[in-house]
Each structure stands twice: as structure tokens, then as C-alpha cells.
Amino acid sequence: MVEFVTINGAQLAYRLAGPANAPLIVTLHGGRGFGDHKSDFHAFLPLSPDYRLLSFDFRGHGRSSRTEPYSFRQLVEDIEGLRRHFVGGENPCIVCGGSFGGFLAQQYAITYPSHVSHLILRGTAPSHHHEAEAIEVLEGRMHRAPGLSTRMLRDKIFGQFDSDLEFQLIMYAAAPLYSESFNADIALGRNLDTVFYAKSHNDLYAEPEKFFDYRDDLSTVTAKTLIIVGERDWICPPAQSRVIASLIPNAHLEVIQDANHSVHVEKNAEVIGHIRKHLMRPAAIS
User: Fold this and answer.
1) How far is residue 45's CA from residue 17's CA, in Å, rounded to a whole number?
2) Less Cβ crowding at N or C end of the chain, within 10 Å?
3) CA distance 163 to 166
4) Of the residues 202, 220, 239, which one is the last residue of a structural domain?
5) Helix (H) or strand (E) holding 136
């Protein structure tokens, strides 16, 4: 059941599963302006017998309140507020972020290194430079999404939408690119069930947010880090995960074959297996 908690003045929608005294895993969803917690909660629910799983909608996303501002810094402070609320004190949590949520996970681990015991990154990138690579990948896979153009990716998905409706239509056109097992009927249902809010997307793609770059700071991350990426990931290609793995001390990288950006859904059992193994490793923080 979805519940709500007030963090930094915003009402955040969340779901919680697992034993109250177990280590807390906070999942951070992808999708600037259109993501929500549902996919991550279901994908990582198999961990809930042994861990306390917290999945939530960022402010300006899903069922959370449209409380401004929409910035990377504010969302990172909301993550910290949730940690304090559900864990308390200086006790660390496990952070699991994918795509845009992976950007935030990196920034959180850099900003609050002692508050993250284990870091799990899925299909993400260390800087805005992944956009140029994604455009190149799209040009080679245009047949997969004939309703999408390079301009729509560059100027809209990586830029500014004129309306919520334009946002919704373009993301439906892009949907075939996100999975190696695309189902048009399922994609339509998900699109209709998704909240598209151009204002939060546009703010999170405005300067300076658009030009995020963590590469100079990733060496300061102290959490035990696992990076998972699908070999066919189009929007955050595997080369981006390799960069992260090369910069975070002792990070471990898993490239999942025959999987795309939705690797945690497409290859769920394999991903859960890697995460379980990773969480067995002692945390860097006592």
C-alpha cells in the first residue's frame, strides 16, 4: 500500500516492505519528470525477506507532491531526509539507483559518504556526456522506434518539453528502445498509467542540472559499489558504467548479456543474484 511522509516540505509517496530491524535499501527510480517507484519496488521486492525495502517517488514525480524546487541537490537532500526518518542518527543505508536515480545515487554517495554502506548502480552514467553516445546509438537503432527522431531525443528527452502531452507521446514513441523484449500492449498500458510532468523534467534538464559531472569526485565514494548494466543499454551504454567502475575504488561491474536499460526487469533473477552476493560483502563503514 502506498503511504506518504513529509520530507523537507514535500509529501513523498512511498512503499515499504521487509523486516523493521533489517538493513534499509533505498531505491531511486529513473525518469526525470515521468518516473515513479513502482517498477523498482516490484523488481527488488525479492530482497525484502532479508532487507527493508523503501521505494519512493521523487518530489514532482508520480504521486508525490509537486513541491518545488526540482533540482539534483534538493532530491539528494530528500534522500537524506528519508534516511534520517527511517534509519535515524548517523546509521548508513544501502542505496540502489538506476538511470536518473543512478545520477542521484552517485551525488548522494559523494555528498554523504558515511551514510551509504553499499551502493548499487543500474544502467546509469557519471556525467551528461552519455547523451552524445545515446544519440549515436539511436541513429543505429532508428528502425526500432520509427516514431522517434534524433531531434526529439536531443531537444526534448534531453531538453525541454512544451507540454505534458508532448512529453507522454514522445516517451511512448521511445519505448521500444528500452527493452529487448518490447511488448506494445504492455508499453501502452504503462504509458497511460504514468504521470508525465513537463515542469519537473524541464527544471531537471535546465542549467546547471543538465551538465552534471561526477567524474572528479567518484574517487571519494567509500561505499562498497556494484554497477550493473545491460549490454544493449541504449541511453546509458555500458561504456558509461565502465567509467564509473574505473573511478570508484574497488567497484565491481556486471554487464548483463541480452539486456537493455530495463535490465533489472528483463533479467530480474540474475540481477537479484548479483545484488545478494554484493550485499554479503562487508560494508566499508562500521
Assistant:
1) 8
2) N
3) 5
4) 202
5) helix 130-140
pLDDT in tens, 169-216: 999 999 999 999 999 999 999 999 999 999 999 999 999 999 999 999
| 127 DSSP 8-state letter | B
Contacts with 59 (C-beta within 8 Å, 6 or more apart), sequence order: 10, 12, 65, 66, 67, 68, 70, 74, 75, 78, 200
pLDDT at 281: 77
pTM for the model: 0.97
Q: Position of cell 560483502?
A: 281
Residues 135 and 149: their CA atoms lie apart, in Å, by: 10
Strand-pair category, 252-256 with 10-17: unpaired
Backbone dihedral angles phi then psi of residue 53, each to the nearest 5 degrees: -100, 125
The residues pairing with 55 across neighbouring beta strands, listed in sequence order, are 15, 27
Q: Are 268 and 230 spatial neighbours (Cβ–Cβ below 8 Å)?
A: no
**What pLDDT score was predicted for residue 286?**
42
Rounded to whole angstroms, the Cα distance separating 170 from 61 reads 17
Examine the domain organization and report whether 48 and 81 are in the same domain.
Answer: yes
Question: What's the whole-number mean pLDDT along residues 259-277?
Answer: 97
H or E element that contains 96: strand 93-98
The rounded distance, in Å, linking the Cα atoms of 195 and 274 is: 31
Q: Are the C-beta atoms of residues 88 and 273 closer than 8 Å to each other?
A: no
